[in-house]
Structures are given as structure tokens and as C-alpha cells.
Amino acid sequence: MITKSKRTLLIPLTSILLVAVAATFAACPSFRAETGEEAAVPAAAPRVPGPDAWWTGQAEAAERSGQPDAAHEFRARAIAYASSLQAQKAAAGPGSSLASALPPLAEAALYVQTPRGAAPKLAKHEPASGVYLGMLGADKRVGYDFSKIEGVYEKKHAMYLAYVGWRKFQTDTSTYFPKRTSDRVKELGGALQIGWEPRYGLDDVKDDEYVRTFAREAKASGIPIFLRYASEMNGNWVPWYGDPQKYIEKFRLIHDIMKEEAPNVAMVWSPNYAPANNIDEYYPGDAYVDWVGFSLYATPLTGGEEDLEHTVIEYFAPLYAKYSHKPIMIAEGAVGHTVLKTNQSYHAWGEGQLGYMYGFLPRMFPMVKAMTYFNFGRAQAQRSNMEYVYDLGESALMDGFYKRLTRSDLFLDGVEQGVNAAPQQYVPLSGSHLPAGKQRIMMYARMKDVSTPFAVALYQGERRLGISYEMPWEIDVDIPAADAAKPWRIVAFNKQMEPIAATPGTAVVRAASPDKSNSGSP
């Protein structure tokens, strides 16, 4: 795998976001803004410990792991949080004139939690709501032993990722299918995602005894299998790239064989997120695809130059708009926090990118039903000639935030067809009016340099409705019907609780959406 370069396309991201989710939310109930009727308020999972206690605990963990800079940052946050609580009245927020003088947020939007509508017909292994939490355990602490993941990351995962080379014989089990791995996953009560890679090219993919045996052994595993056959086919770094028609023919062949031999196998069609301009030509058709998967990465360099101004949301939004008629998984995704060649680290930036990936993305895009972190250690990355370190354990800021984010009940620790783990979903709010009544609101606020604010608050005029100190910036509000029509604005703060950016009382501030050119996978 090699890094991808980037180029910018002038496509309004927030326009894409609203188009992408419009069909999904068409059947959602109204916000009752005019009647004043109170909406049902979901019981929010308690955030225990609170931010200050969490940061203090993470500071101690960072000290133990030999990362004093991260420990210092965590302690600074805890102190700033305590100070902000003491001074909340004094820092009640800027008035309209002050807000108008602040630099604008690059992107700003509100999402309101509302009851989820009835689920349509579900695909194989698809939950009605919620996100299967997955991981490739190739980091230093787990070392490919999936049984360690729960202890290290403080949550049981639902899905485990393994790669299988074409025609590779598993000598320890005398099988083609990775039986030893699947047995271990079965003991953990999980599902297995398999990257099945036709390394000898598409001409070697045939209806033969190898494929049939693999399929029968997959069925015998007795667990849910997500078969990511010939992934990243749109990238020139794989030998199955370059002939879309032949790719489609072979994908359909594998689908048909699995349908006959292995009903527990869900077929995952999984391009890389870049290049995006040739993805569609590889699509095998709805009848042959159970899930759509994407490889999705955030890296700090482009062509050797620092490039920190984009997020995974910007790259993912147009893909979601095209393929959200299927359940979507982030089949492998990660944030590169350290450049191997220079050992330059971008831990704070990486933490923010992780917030976009695991905080905002699954809440903004409700057809995302599974996410697998590509947790690849430094030694493995060096042996594979990769450019970045993705290992969460080497970045205390990212490690702590991954644990914090994935504690949410949104992330499922087991694969169960039809489970409805998140009966509430976020709906994008268009216009300048807030819904009346008690609501849970998510504030999407992106700084122009993609730095992470210390806090984000929602205002109506001089009145601060709520403030959040953690991505994805969620608050609970109670809007009187008489105030629903008053314009709102989002204000971002630094650790000194000084306002640093804001949006006026409009729903959206538009910004350009980037794209990435055809180079390679990180």
C-alpha cells in the first residue's frame, strides 16, 4: 500500500450531505416546531466519567505509556474544563455583533435527534440500526490475538478483519478457509470480515475446487462472514485493477458460488475511497452486492507535503450519496498519526480526524452499519513499506479518544440481524429555526484548518443553549415554542474559553469538497 495524493474539487460538501441523507430521512416525523408539542426525549447514555475525570485518567495512562506530551495535553484540558465551569456566567457567550466579527467556521450544521422510521428490507447480517464495531488487531498490543482486543480497547468488538491470499493453503488446519482464525472469532462471539485477494489476477478466478472448497469451509465455520472479495479494485496498486467488465464477471461468479454453498456469507463490494472517478464502473449490480464497503483513510501528507485541511467526511459524503441504498461498512479505515520516514507525529490532528471518523460519520450517515479500524503497528508498517503508523497505542490522544467514542451504545459488540440498537437518529436541520421542545442536538463544526476547538456552543441571540467539550459536540436543549423561530448560531472556543470562530444564524456555511487522485492506498 502507498499513500494517496489529493486535489481539490469545488463541490459544496454540505450540499452533498443534505442530498445524501434526504432520501433516508424522507419518512421522518416533523419537528413539531410550530405546535409546541414536545418531542420524545431519548434517554441519553450517561457519560461516566465526565470529561474532566476522563482526561485526568487518560493523563495518568499516557504517563505510564511514556507519552508525557499527551499527558500534559490531557491535564491542560481538565484544568480548562474546570475553569470554564466556574466562569460559565462570565463566558455566557458573545452577542451578535461579536459573533459576526469572528472568523467563519468552514462548515457548520445542526442535526436533531428524532425517532427512526421503520426499517426497509434488511440485507444479510444487517442491523436495523447501530454500527458493528470491528478491528484489524495488527497493532503492537494485540499482535493478531483477537482475544486481547476487548481488554486493550475496553469494549468487545463485533467484527474482526483478516486477509487471505488467493489459493493459500492453511497448513495448520489443512483448509483453504482460515479455520483457526474463524474458530477463535467464534469463541469470542464475533463475525469475520475476510479480505480475499486474487493475487494472481482475475484470470485465475474460476469455478473450481479451490473456490468451492473455500465456500463450503466458510459455511462450516458457523459464524457470520463478510467476504470482501477483490477490494480496492479501483486502485492501480492491485493486480485485479484495470478491467471493470472482467472484474464484474468474476465478482458475480463468486457471489453465485457463495449463494449456493455458503448462506452465512455476505458479499461486500469494497472500493477504495480514491480515486473516486472510476468506482462506478466496477459495480457488479445490486443483485450481487449485500454490503458496500469502503477503505477510508486520513493521512497528514500529500505528495510529501503537509496537508491537514480536510476530513474523512468530505471524502465520504459523495460516496454515501451514490451507494446508501445498500448498508455501508467502513471495511478498513484509519488515521495515520506518524510519518515513518521522518518520525514526525500529528497526534492532535489525528485525534480530531478520529472524531470525524467515529464521532460524526456514523451519526451523519445512518446507513453506515459497520466500521473496522485498520490497527496496524509500526513494525508491520515498516515491513510492508507503508508511509504511516496507524497503531492507536502509539498515540495516547487517539487511543483514549477511540475508547471514549466507541463506548457509545451506537457501536454494537455483536452481529445480529435486525437488531435495533439506536432507535433515535440524527436528521439534518435545514433553515434557521430550531424545533420546539426537548431535543438532543449535534453540532457539526469544522474549523478552516481542521484544528479541534476545545468547546462548541449553540446560541440564540445572547442566550447560550448548550455547550459541549467533546466531539461530536452533542447537547440537550429545551426550546420554548415562542423561541423556535429565533435564528441560531454555533460558536467555537479555545481552552481559554475565548470565541475563535462562529457561524451566523444560517443553517450552513458552504465550503469546497476535496477529491483524491489515483495514486494508492496508505
From TrEMBL:
- GH26 domain ranges (all copies): 93-393
Active-site positions on this chain:
232, 332
Q: Name one GO biological process term.
A: substituted mannan metabolic process
Keywords (alphabetical) are:
Glycosidase, Hydrolase, Signal
Q: Where is the signal peptide?
A: 1-32
Taxonomy, superkingdom: Bacteria
Taken from the record, one Pfam family name reads Glyco_hydro_26
User: PROSITE patterns attached here?
Assistant: GH26, PROKAR_LIPOPROTEIN
One GO term in the molecular function aspect is: mannan endo-1,4-beta-mannosidase activity
- Protein family (similarity comment): Belongs to the glycosyl hydrolase 26 family.
The name on file for this protein is GH26 domain-containing protein
